[in-house]
Specification:
- The complex is a heterodimer of chains A (about 325) and B (about 450).
- Chain A is of the alpha/beta class and about 325 residues long.
- Chain A contains eleven helices and 14 strands.
- In chain A, helix 1 (about 5-20) runs parallel beside helix 6.
- The termini of chain A are far apart.
- The mean pLDDT of chain A is about 95.
- The longest helix of chain B has 18 residues, at about 250-265.
- In chain B, a hairpin with a 2-residue loop joins strand 13 and strand 14 (about 315).
- Chain B has helices at about 85-90, 95-100, 130-140, 160-170, 175, 190, 195-200, 220-235, 250-265, 270-285, 330-345, 420-435, and strands spanning about 5, 15-20, 30, 35-40, 45-50, 55-60, 65-70, 70-75, 240-245, 290-295, 295-300, 305-310, 310, 315, 320, 360, 380-385, 390-395, 400-410.
- Helices cover about 30% and strands about 25% of the residues of chain B.
- Classes of the chains: A alpha/beta (about 325), B alpha+beta (about 450).
- The interface of A and B includes residues 280, 283 and 285 of A.
Chain lengths: ~325, ~450
């Protein structure tokens, strides 16, 4: 099986879908000749031509608007945000148009908006956000955030084939750091299904994106101390996989919710509410959130390091919770 | 009026019984309390008396057939006399009472320590820190959370704790379910007296108080004391003998040396070591007081492990001075002080309340003249000490004022006769009245 980076896996997934379905096309800033800011679309222009790999003006509103229109006309656009931070410029088109059309008058809106999010690369406040919750709180969308190369390929393919608008959060810290075997075949990872990344008994750590790796690192440390973490990778945030979350919560009876996104109104709060509602009588300790604080992502490297949750912070919290 | 005859519950843990023999045939007349059939259960074989008089009209369970407790095994038709008044029907008519008693666990194949204990209410567990999960498990598994040792933060009972508790409970169900009569020293037969009586404790009359009241669950220590006391009363043939003892020499000795004793040893000289020493001397002379009953044997214990009852706010605890017979006065005094202090601060280990062979109790500290203490099973006697106070007594035909005390000995008349008991206390009295052991 070929070894691919997380980035190459996304690229391969898009490539395969472009080959499979002529309705799939790409649009975004500098995605053609330049191959995209992170080179996700490198070589696509040469392979699929300028009609299917469209360089746009620097206007996210225009990109999203064009994509929504094309989707309504039966195309399957994959729009790139150079950084997910800038998706806000197209927000009205996503939240008020794309997300609601199906409910207002029935059409499919098979649209993917993808791009790099997340911190850890000293990108500063405009290039590091984890802004997935803007969309998780918007019914009508699907939101996904893969952690592994395998899932990145499987999920981008599933997203392109889905008839709903999907916001696809790639983690830029993982782009070239994650390398793993990825099947060259045509496979998908279904949207809405979480994955148990590591089995454990004592504490369920439920997370997604780059923090999956943080959780696995902490689990490796803690297992030597006799504390067994189960790591759940949500993969899809909307609709999220209630069953897997509750199964792990019930199994371990103690839960840590971990994400890179800021604290208030984050995915952790949503999952904590779910667990409190549906697994209250399975809990043997308080539900704990580990998140970044409620501030923009700092530019200063030491501050950014402080801002981001890490394996040590998670391990400390897990030790405390295990002893509770 | 037909009366149903049911398979009785021969002990709390017994779930079923086998009819081994019918002593009456269908159509035969039977008197109330006349043996009707024989059964065999996990615990006991017994003759079951008829709950009513009349004619045995139906036998529903054949010989050698095993059925669950409370199953109707036969029907007796009333003989027609109008003179069988309510007591007959009321009293033995077994159907309704046991049914109510065993309601919580109808089939109850797995014995539980408290089969009829209601699920602990949240209020009952409030003082014990736990979690929603632990409370749910407790409810489902009929666990009183206050019995579970918590290892979590601030003694919180965690999932692991309660699961370990249940595992242990299920591993030793026999031991626990046999709890009512575990008296180490009890003869096996006494455990299962004639059927009617054996069944009786399991079917204590329902004494339901109807009126405004607050229900508070017993603490584990209180529950243990309750069980232990009732068990002892059921087990031993208690007799109490009382002696009056002059404490002049003891009081003088204590007063004379109290300052020096405190200075040397760092703790106060109390009366207790005097009493312990006197009891030990008497035990050495009458070793039967350091024994227990095992079936038809008497077990004489080599060491004198003397328990000293300490009253705590939460209940009574009896730390044990191990090998008290090998200790001199100071050794005893030190042990008494140490154990009492640690009993009050709840730092006693399990070993330190185990294996007592004789017990000393001192209700006198609260002003009691004397009482009739209950034997600490499986021991065979307990020595109580009343208040030491000055009383007018006759000395040389004159009224004198002397510090006096009543000593009372409760002993198990199954093993010890009154004359021996009295000689024993007389020996204690002699030691105290003629105190000559140096205390410093």
């Amino acid at each position: 099986m070929p070894i691919l980076t997380y980035l190459d896996a996304i690229r391969q997934g898009i490539w395969e879908e472009m080959e499979r379905d002529p309705a799939v096309f790409l649009l975004g800033e500098d995605i053609g000749v330049y191959g995209g800011a992170f080179k996700v679309t490198a070589g696509m222009l040469e392979k699929f031509g300028a009609e299917r790999v469209i360089d746009t003006p620097i206007s996210e509103s225009a990109i999203v608007g064009a994509a929504v229109g094309a989707a309504l006309m039966g195309m399957r656009p994959v729009a790139e945000m150079q950084f997910m931070d800038f998706i806000a410029c197209g927000f009205d088109q996503i939240a008020n148009m794309a997300a609601k059309m199906r409910y207002r008058w029935g059409p499919a809106v098979p649209l993917v908006i993808r791009g790099p999010a997340g911190a850890g690369v000293h990108g500063g406040p405009f290039h590091s956000q984890s802004n997935e919750m803007w969309f998780v709180h918007t019914p009508g969308l699907k939101v996904t955030a893969p952690a592994t190369a395998y899932d990145a390929k499987g999920l981008i393919k599933a997203s392109i084939r889905d008839d709903n608008p999907v916001i696809f959060f790639e983690h830029k810290f993982l782009y070239r750091r994650i390398k793993e075997e990825v099947p060259a075949d045509d496979y998908i990872v279904p949207l809405g299904k979480a994955r148990v990344a590591r089995e454990g008994d004592d504490i369920a750590v439920i997370t997604y994106g780059a923090m999956v790796w943080t959780a696995l690192e902490a689990a490796e440390t803690l297992v030597k101390e006799g504390i067994s973490l189960e790591v759940v990778d949500l993969r899809t945030l909307l609709p999220y996989d209630e069953d897997t979350v509750l199964t792990s919560a019930r199994k371990c009876s103690k839960v840590i919710l971990l994400h890179e996104d800021t604290r208030t109104g984050g995915m952790a709060g949503e999952l904590a509410a779910l667990i409190a509602e549906k697994a209250f009588e399975d809990l043997d300790g308080p539900v704990v959130r580990i998140t970044s604080p409620d501030t923009p992502v700092p530019f200063s490297p030491p501050l950014e390091e402080f801002f981001l949750p890490n394996a040590k912070r998670l391990a400390d919290a897990a030790r405390k919770l295990a002893a509770y | 009026m037909p009366t149903n005859v049911i398979m009785p519950q021969m002990g709390e843990s017994v779930a079923e019984g086998t009819v081994t023999k019918w002593m009456k045939k269908i159509g035969e007349r039977v008197e109330r309390d006349e043996p009707l059939f024989e059964i065999s259960t996990d615990k006991v074989d017994a003759e079951i008396p008829s709950p009513a008089e009349g004619v045995l009209s139906k036998i529903l369970v054949k010989e050698n057939e095993t059925v669950a407790v409370n199953t109707v095994v036969a029907v007796i038709n009333g003989s027609g006399e109008a003179s069988i008044p309510s007591p007959v029907k009321e009293q033995p008519s077994p159907a309704p009472v046991p049914a109510a008693k065993t309601a919580p666990s109808p089939a109850a194949p797995e014995p539980r320590p408290e089969p009829s204990a209601p699920a602990p209410s949240p209020a009952a567990d409030e003082k014990v820190r736990s979690s929603p999960l632990v409370r749910r498990i407790a409810r489902e598994q009929h666990v009183n959370i206050s019995e579970v040792h918590g290892t979590g933060l601030s003694g919180r009972v965690s999932k692991k704790d309660i699961l370990a508790f249940i595992e242990q409970r299920d591993v030793e169900p026999k031991r626990l379910s046999a709890a009512p009569p575990p008296a180490a020293g009890m003869p096996a037969r006494a455990e299962t007296p004639p059927a009617r009586q054996a069944a009786a404790p399991a079917r204590a009359p329902e004494i339901a108080f109807k009126g405004p009241a607050e229900t508070v669950p017993m603490t584990p220590i209180r529950r243990q004391i309750a069980e232990h006391m009732a068990l002892s009363k059921r087990t031993s043939a208690h007799v109490t003998t009382v002696f009056e003892v002059e404490m002049t020499r003891v009081v003088e000795t204590r007063e004379r040396f109290s300052t020096e004793f405190l200075a040397r040893n760092g703790f106060k000289l109390t009366f207790t070591p005097f009493l312990v020493r006197a009891a030990v001397e008497a035990i050495k002379e009458f070793p039967i007081f350091n024994s227990s009953i095992d079936g038809s044997n008497i077990i004489y214990k080599r060491d004198v492990n003397l328990g000293v009852a300490v009253a705590l706010e939460t209940g009574l605890i009896v730390p044990v001075i191990k090998r008290a017979d090998e200790k001199n006065f100071l050794g005893v005094a030190r042990a008494v002080n140490d154990l009492a202090e640690r009993a009050r601060s709840k730092r006693l280990s399990v070993d330190e309340v185990k294996d007592g062979t004789f017990t000393l109790t001192n209700p006198g500290v609260f002003g009691s003249l004397f009482g009739t203490p209950i034997i600490n099973q499986p021991q065979v006697a307990i020595l109580g000490v009343g208040v030491i106070e000055k009383r007018p007594v006759i000395r040389n035909d004159a009224i004198a004022i002397r510090p006096m005390v009543y000593l009372m000995l409760s002993f198990d008349h199954r093993l010890i006769d009154g004359s021996v008991a009295d000689q024993f206390v007389a020996r204690v009295k002699a030691v105290l009245e003629n105190w000559d052991e140096p205390v410093v």
